[in-house]
Amino acid sequence: MNEISGQSRPKHIVLTSHPTGDQKPVPIQWGADSARERGPVIATPAGSGERNTIGSYSGSYSVYRALAVAAGSLDPLHKPDLTNTSPAVNLGPFPQWTDPDRIVSIDPWGHMVGAVFADEIAKGMDVRPTIAVTRARLTVPELQHSDGPKLEPDGKVLLESGEVNVIKIAIEPVWYLPGIAARFDTTEATLRRSLFEHTGGMFSELVTRPDMHVFLPPIGGITAYLFGDIEAISDPAKKLSCRVHDECNGSDVFGSDICTCRPYLIHGIEDAILTTQQGGAGLIVYNRKEGRALGEVTKFLVYNARKRQEGGDTAENYFERTECVAGVQDMRFQELMPDVLNWLGITRIDRFISMSNMKYDAIVEQGIVIDERIPIPDHLIPDDAKVEIDAKKAAGYFTDGQVPTAEELSNTQGRDLKEY
Ligand SMILES: [Zn+2]
């Protein structure tokens, strides 16, 4: 029995699956005209009668919080002290925030919680921000050795030291289940059942509390990096360069050469800086969706399967090998991705630094205009990553060059496992 598991905490386990007389969830009106009318998203652990969501704050990190309580290092009744944590810049509101169909996977008011619900928090309500907005300075070695146009310091975005000034925003997932179901053209009941069954029954309220429609899933979130003035990001009269990047730890952080992720990401940062210096703005959205949201274990299994198959690792068989292991080619489901763009008030992207047809289609479907699509320059593609790029071009990814023929696909070959 640990000492800090507080005196006022109930000794018995409080099941949230069966509403009792003391539980009075605060209503949530998704898409309402203000944060106050919409209502607070309360995802404190079991025991609070005000709780009005399924799941818990902090996405996948909620599991570590549970571990900290079990280990006796965290008081289960601890509430965050939000002094001085408010956003470093003002952002919104935008018209998209009050359209219940436009944003379904994040809480558009998530960064304003401390200010909007200050009175309730002072009275003891445990409502927490799901978005945090701060500033940062980046050092990116490749920018100083770029093969592209030489970046000149401007003293504002790019400093003499080579450092880059940005606004960075961390966003946790907050899912409005009816809206998520609509995006995937399914019913809320089917979605709830699948989420319940395929997480090993992790959240029983998905099936027992149809009165609760907001779910904080235990998955990774989003980080947005903004270059230039915050007002310019949402101003359609100013040019916007944007890359939507899905996490690839092996390439992004460690420089692994089997894919183009880091070189394309850096190219996006470079273009964001250039566009900002020309009077526009830049945006990098970084989604925690490792290995096409299949995870690194599946990803590395696929690498082995690709490199050991008969005939070697060819572009011709690139997608098929993923499907053999994972059952699907891709699990990123770009349908939810445009929410962050809507949240930032974006209606137009001038330079879209991506070749993905799935990302392009999802954004355009949301009514956001994309002017120009910028493929990765050939000289940035590592040799071993040519398999991926050729396979993607053949599968419909954007290119301003030639789409490889069937013969060329079988000739684009990566390194064998024995060659490492
Ligand atoms: Zn990658």
User: Biggest sheet, in brief?
Assistant: 7 strands, mixed
Number of strands: 10
Report the average pLDDT across residues.
Answer: 92
Rg, Å, rounded: 23 Å
Topology of this structure?
Elements: H1 35-38, E1 54-55, H2 62-70, H3 113-116, H4 118-122, E2 131-138, H5 141-144, E3 164-171, E4 175-176, H6 177-183, H7 188-197, H8 205-208, E5 214-216, E6 222-227, H9 230-233, E7 240-246, H10 249-252, H11 261-277, E8 281-287, H12 290-293, H13 296-308, H14 318-326, H15 338-343, E9 348-352, H16 357-365, E10 369-373, H17 386-394, H18 406-411
Helix pairs in contact: 6-7, 13-14
Outline of the structure:
This protein is an alpha/beta fold.
Describe this structure in words.
With 420 residues, this protein is of the alpha/beta class. Helices cover 30% and strands 13% of the residues. The strands form 2 sheets. The chain has a 7-stranded mixed β-sheet with strand order 2-3-6-8-7-9-10, with helices on both faces. A 3-stranded mixed β-sheet has the order 1-5-4. Helix 16 links the parallel strand 9 and strand 10. The longest helix has 17 residues, at 261-277. Bound molecules: zinc ion.
Attribute tags:
420 residues; alpha/beta; 18 helices; globular; binds zinc ion
